[in-house]
Amino acid sequence: MAIRVLLVDDVVDVRRLVRTALRFRGSFEVVAEAGDGAAAVRLAGETRPDIIVLDLGLPDLAGREVLSRIRERSPASKVVVFSGLETPDRAWIEGQVEGFVLKDAELDYLIDLLESVGGTGGAEAFVDLPLSLTSVAAARRFVEARMKEWKVEHLLDDALMVSSELVTNAVTHARSSCRVRLSLNLARLRIDVLDAGAGTPEPQPPSQTEEHGRGLYIVDAVTSAWGLEDVPGEGKLVWAELALPR
Fold first, then answer.
1. Which is it for strands 51-54 and 28-34: parallel, antiparallel or unpaired?
2. Which of 142, 17, 155 minimizes the C-alpha distance to 84?
3. Residue from 49, 28, 37 nearest 225 by CA
4. d(Cα 217, Cα 206) in Å, to the nearest integer?
5. Confidence of residue 10 (pLDDT cuts 50, 70, 90)
6. CA–CA separation, 5 vs 244, rounded Å?
7. 117-152: per-residue pLDDT in tens?
8. How far is CA 26 from CA 22, 51, 198, in A?
9. Buried-exposed string 142-176: b where 16+ CB fall within 10 A, e elsewhere
10. 3-class secondary-structure state, position 125
11. Which domains does the chain have, with CATH numbers?
């Protein structure tokens, strides 16, 4: 799988150089770029990248502040600092990130580090399921088998609960067949459910009498992030992420 990268630097030429080097290496996908701290925080939350390449000398937010906000918005993302500033709180920052590289270093060194931080431990698998109530059980069997194969059984209970809820929504509410896809890297396990049905899943107000509508509250509670995306020509994708221990 390609390593998904968010580039954060207020100098356009620096972003272009890093983007070009990543493209030549071939194992990366730049999902977004930001020129200031506010945009970096917003895009981190929207794109949930595997790695954020972060300049500390941004025009609007100090290094500690932008790093803290990024961690809040995308806790599973790895952060590698690539900065022209030698900061007095470098020791603190190095304790919060996966790498710290000054811009006078060789660019290949940065790319090698990014590949090392995000380029191992990846796996992906999917299964297509019919419009049937039996698909929930089939999804659970698929998830359990892959989790054991990938040796991440410590996430199994949460992954089974999330996949059951998302497939149930596809079958009973969207009235659609669905595809369940699992993807794993060093930072997170992601569960995608793609269906062709109408409507969007939304948490319902708590109720003592209704039997449905509570599942998404549980999904929100156990995952580091979840959301919904339109997939043109195919339907909608509901995704959820479980963070691996740092």
1. unpaired
2. 17
3. 49
4. 9
5. very high
6. 18
7. 876 456 778 999 999 999 999 999 999 999 999 889
8. 6, 15, 37
9. bbeebbeebebeebeebbbbbbbbbbbbbbeebeb
10. strand
11. 3-118 (3.40.50.2300), 123-243 (3.30.565.10)
AA identity, residue 34: A
d(CA 65, CA 205): 35
pLDDT value, residue 199: 63
- Statement: residue 215 has pLDDT above 80: no
> Any idea which residue has 């890093």 for tokens?
18
Query: 15-37 burial string, b = 16+ CB within 10 Å, else e?
Result: beebbeebeeeeebebbbbbbeb
Strands (E) located in 10-110:
28-34, 51-54, 78-83, 99-102
- Separation of alpha carbons 121 and 91, rounded Å: 28
Q: State how far the alpha carbon of 53 is from the alpha carbons of 24, 127, 183, in Å.
A: 17, 33, 22
Using alpha carbons only, give the angle 241, 201, 226 rounded to the nearest 5 degrees.
15
Statement: residue 84 has pLDDT above 90: no
